[in-house]
Amino acid sequence: MPKVLIADALSPRAVDILAARGVQVDFRPGLPAEELKARIAAYEGLVVRSATKVTAGLLSHAHNLKVIGRAGIGIDNIDVAAATQRGIVVMNTPYGNSITAAEHTIAMLFALCREIPVADRSTQAGKWEKSRFMGVELTGKTLGIIGCGNVGSIVAERALGLRMKVIAYDPFLSPERAVGLGIEKVSLDWLLARADFITLHTPLTEATKNLIDARAIAGMKRGVRLVNCARGGLVVETDLAAALDSGQVAGAAIDVFVDEPALKNPLFGRDNVVATPHLGAATTEAQENVALQIAGQIADFLLTGAVSNALNVPSLTAEEAKRLDPYMKLAEQLGSFAGQLTETGIKSVTLEYEGAVAELNIKPLSAIVLTGLLSPQLAAVNMVNALELCRERDIRISETRRGEPVDYQTLIRVVVTTERRVRGLAGTLFAGDKPRIVSIEGIPLEAELGGNMLFVRNYDKPGFIGALGHALGAADVNIATFHLGRTAPGQDAIALVEVDEPLTPAILDTVRALPNVIQVKALRF
User: Where in the chain is the domain with CATH 3.40.50.720?
Assistant: First the structure.
C-alpha cells in the first residue's frame, strides 16, 4: 500500500479520498524542517501547499518519493529541477482557485478606491471622520490588466460588469481572444500610460521579475492605483514606496510580498496601502477544490501510473520514453529558444518532423516544444496543459510529418508566427543522441547550446565579428563557443555565442550599441 504524507493544512476530504482509494495517509501539517527530513524517506507521495519548502536538501532524504502534489498553482516552494533529477513527478492544480484569486483582486480594488481599511480603523476608534475619506468610483475608469490568462480574464469579466474599460498587456493574448473577452490588447507602455487602475496577474519569471520598477512607475498616469495579488517580486517594493510618498501612485493594494511572511516591509504603515497576508486563494471553496483535485491526481498516479497536470514528465510508456529521450532534449531546446526570442503575441505554431523522428510518437515532442515556447511568460506550463493554454489563447497548432529525409536523416523544425513576424528554427541529432541547432530564421549554422548563450542578429559587414569579440573581451566575458551563419554576403547574419557566465544588462546594451546590430538576446538553457 503506497504511503502519502500531507505536510500542510488541507481539507480533511483529501485524506478521505486517498484512504478510500487504498492509499495510506499521514496528515502532519507544520512539521519542523528537520523532522520532515527524518520522516520523508518513508513516503512515496508528498502533498503540500505553500508553507512547506520542498528543497533539494529535503529531497536528498526522500529515497522512496515518487510524486509531489502541490494543492494550488504556485510552485515557488518546490525545487522542480531537483525533483526531476531524482525522477520525482511534480503535479499541481492550476485551475482550482482561479475564481477566488480573481474575486480577491476585485475586493482589493474596492477597498483601495474607497479607503475602507483606514476608514474602518478610524470609525471604530470613535472619530467619525466622514469628510476625510473621499473615494473614487470604478465606473468609467480604465483598468489595465497585466497578464490576461486564467485569473486575468476572470478579473476582466468582473471589471466589465462594473462598467470599467479594460485594457490588457499579455504577449500571449491574441487579438481574437481579446475581442472575445470584450477588452483591448495594448503594449505595456501604452497600458501604463492610460490605466487609472492596474492589476497584476502574471507569474514570476526572469522576464517578469521587477516588472514594476521606478521606470515603469514613471510611465504611469499620475494618481494611478496598483493591485498585486499575483506574486511577490513583480513589483520593486522600495520603488513603489517612493512613488506612494510622491503621489505618483495614489494607492496600492498588495497581497503578495518579496519576503513572506512579511513581518516588516517598506510599504507598511501607510494609509494609502491596503495589505493582506497572501489571501488570494484563501476561501473555503478554493481550498476544497484544490484538495480534492490533488488527492485524486496523487491516487491515480500511485495506483495506476496516470499523470495529470504534471510539470516535469511526459505521458509516455517506458519503451517510448527510451526512444524519444534524445528527441525530447532537442524539442525542449527548440521550444525554449523560440520562446526566449518571442516578444509579441503568438498567432500560430507549425511543427514539422522529417526523417526518422516522423516515424515516432510526436505528440510528446510537440507538447515539450510548446512548453518551452510558453514558459518564459507563463507559470506552471507543462506537457499536459501546454496545448490547452495555446487553445485558450487562440494559438493555432499544426503538425506535419515527412518520412523521407531532405537535408538530414532526422529533423525537427519549429515555425512561430507572431503579430509581427515569422520565425523558424530547426534542429537535428548528431551521432544519434546529440542535439544541434542547424537553422535559425532560414540562416544555416550548426550549434550546440550551452547554459548561457548570446544571440546576435546583424548585417553582415566587415569587422563585425572582431568588434563583437572585442566588446565581450573588454567586459571580461569568456567565450566558450562561437557559431556563425548568414543568408548571403552583406545581408542578414547570426552569431550564437556560448559564454561562461550569465550576461548582464550592461553587457547586452554594449553589444546592442555596436554598428550593424539588429537584435540582441541573452538565452538560458
Answer: 3-96+284-304, 98-275
Reduced to 3 states (helix: H, G, I; strand: E, B; else coil), residue 350 is strand
> What fold does the segment set 314-437 form as a domain?
60s Ribosomal Protein L30; Chain: A; (3.30.1330)
CB atoms within 10 A of CB 384: 19
CATH superfamily of 3-96+284-304: NAD(P)-binding Rossmann-like Domain (3.40.50.720)
Question: Cell digits for 244?
Answer: 506612494
Could you tell me if 387 and 363 are in contact, meaning their C-beta atoms sit under 8 angstroms apart? no
Q: Which CATH architecture has domain 98-275?
A: 3-Layer(aba) Sandwich (3.40)
Taking 60 as the threshold, does the pLDDT of residue 318 lie above it? Answer: no
What is the layout of strands, in order, in the sheet containing 434-440? 396-402, 346-355, 410-418, 422-430, 434-440, 443-447
Q: Which residues are catalytic?
A: 231, 260, 278
Does the domain at 442-525 match CATH 3.30.2060.10? Answer given as no
* Spatial distance between the Cα atoms of 262 and 66, rounded to a whole number of angstroms: 33
| 270: β partners | none
Residue pLDDT, tens place only, 497-517: 999 999 999 999 999 999 999
Portions of the chain given CATH number 3.30.70.260: 442-525
456 phi, psi to nearest 5 deg:
-130, 125
Q: Which three cell numbers stand for residue 178?
A: 481579446
CB 146 within 8 A of CB 186: no
The model's pLDDT over 276-296, given as tens digits with 9 standing for 90+, comes to: 999 998 888 888 999 999 999
Grid coordinates standing for 108?
Answer: 482589493
What is the spatial distance between Cα 433 and Cα 401, in angstroms, rounded to a whole number?
20
Q: What is the largest CA-CA distance in the chain?
A: 83
Can you spell out the DSSP letters for 27-42? E-TT--HHHHHHHGGG
Q: Which residues of 135-159 are buried (b: 16+ CB within 10 A; e: fewer)?
A: ebebeebbbbbbbbbbbbbbbbebb
Cβ(24)–Cβ(50) below 8 Å? no
Domain with CATH 3.30.1330.90 in the chain: 314-437
| Interval 432-473: pLDDT, tens | 889 999 999 889 999 999 999 999 999 999 999 999 999 999
pLDDT bucket at 310, cuts 50 / 70 / 90: confident
Integer Cα distance of 523 and 122 in angstroms = 52
Q: How far apart are CA 170 and CA 186, in angstroms?
A: 8
Q: What is the model's pLDDT at position 74? A: 79
